[in-house]
Design brief:
alpha+beta, two-stranded antiparallel sheet, 3 helices, about 25% helix, binds nickel (II) ion
């Protein structure tokens, strides 16, 4: 297992569409293992393969029980409700924005061996499913907001009584 470099906004790989995974081989397993190490080291809650320069439909998400979920060829099959909250991205360091997402999200995917499964979650993890799956079609969260904020700006807002927690 090895940490991989996280690609930053401006790199064209982040704007490309990812290909479906068809081979559930050691190369995929290595990618998933490396993505797990990388997302933990970066203190993130999710990472998509294009963020490490790989144009494959692969994401990892850490849920609120600190469990890492591997999603291969993920697809959102059901959503309900709505939430509006703060989002950031390891590829857009230091910038945050308020994004509207569904409150509950159900995802259909395959595991690292190609076995299909479905997973449903809410709140922050539901937000994370949407954010990471958007990466697979070349989209970043900042396309969904009027403007982004720095950590300092958010701090100032909080001091003025604006709730900015995720
Ligand atoms: Ni991201």
């Amino acid at each position: 297992m090895a940490m991989r470099e996280i690609v930053k906004k401006g790199d064209e790989v982040l704007a490309k569409k990812c290909h479906a995974v068809t081979k559930f081989d050691h190369k995929l397993h290595e990618l998933l293992d490396d993505m797990a190490v990388t997302v933990r080291a970066a203190d993130g809650v999710g990472l998509a393969a294009p963020q490490v320069g790989i144009l494959r439909q692969v994401v990892v998400v850490i849920n609120e029980d600190d469990e890492l979920i591997e999603l291969v060829n993920p697809e959102i099959v059901k959503t309900s409700g709505e939430q509006f909250g703060l989002e950031g991205c390891l590829s857009v360091p230091g910038r945050y924005g308020f994004v509207k997402r569904p409150m509950i999200v159900r995802v259909k995917a395959q595991d690292r061996n190609g076995v299909p499964f479905e997973v449903e979650d809410e709140g922050l993890t539901a937000r994370c499913f949407c954010h990471e799956i958007d990466h697979l079609s070349g989209h970043l969260f900042d396309e969904l907001v009027d403007r982004t904020y720095t950590a300092e700006e958010l701090e100032a807002m909080e001091e003025n009584g604006v709730e900015v927690e995720e």
